[in-house]
Specification:
Strand order of the largest sheet: 1-2-5
Helix content: 55-70%
Shape: globular
Number of strands: 5
Number of domains: 1
Structural class: mainly alpha
Largest sheet: 3 strands, mixed
Amino acid sequence: MKGEVTALLLAWEGGDPEALERLLPLVYDELRRIGERQLRGERAGQTLQPTAVVHEAYLRLVDQSRANWQNRSHFYAVAARMMRRVLVDHARRRGRVKRGAGAPRISFDEAEAHIPSEGGDRIDRIDRIDRIEPIDLVDLIDLHDALERLGQLDAEQARIVELRYFGGLTIEETAAVLGSSPATVKRDWSSARAWLYRELHGAPP
C-alpha cells in the first residue's frame, strides 16, 4: 500500500493526471476507516480534529523514505477533500444534520502534528495552524454548507479553508499546492474566516 500510494503521488507530481484518479479511492478508503473508528464512540458535544486523521493516514499510506515536502503537501491536498467527505457522509448517515441535535462538532483550535521528515528518521513539527478565533467550535454540516456557498462566490478561498483545516497545511504549503503566494493565501484565509463567521453566526467578528 505505501509503495503504491507514494508512486502515485510521485506520478501525479510529475504531471500524470491519471495517477490522481487511481490515488483517490486508496486515500478515501483509508480515511474512512480511520475516521469512522474515531467517530464510533462519539457523543454529543464531542469535538473532532480532521487534521489528526489525515496525519495518521499519511503515516500509514506514504513511504517516508520517498516522501519529500512537495508530495507530502500534494497528499494533504487530496486527503483534505476526502476527509471532508468522510466526515460529512458520516454525519448524514447518522441523520444528525441540525445544530444542537447531537451533530458532530468540530474545533478550529490550534493543531500540531508530527510527521517524519524526508529521511524517515527525524521527526519534524508542522507549523501550528492559525486559530480561527471567530468560529472556534461549529457544527460540521453547517460548516460544510457554508463552504459550499463560499465556493460559489470564491472557489479559491473555499479551497484554502479546506486545505488549511481539513488537510492541516501551513500557509506556505497551501500556497505551493495552489500555485499562489503566501501573502495572497494569508489574505484570502483571513477573508474566508470573516465570511464564514458571518455565515455561521450572523454577525461580523
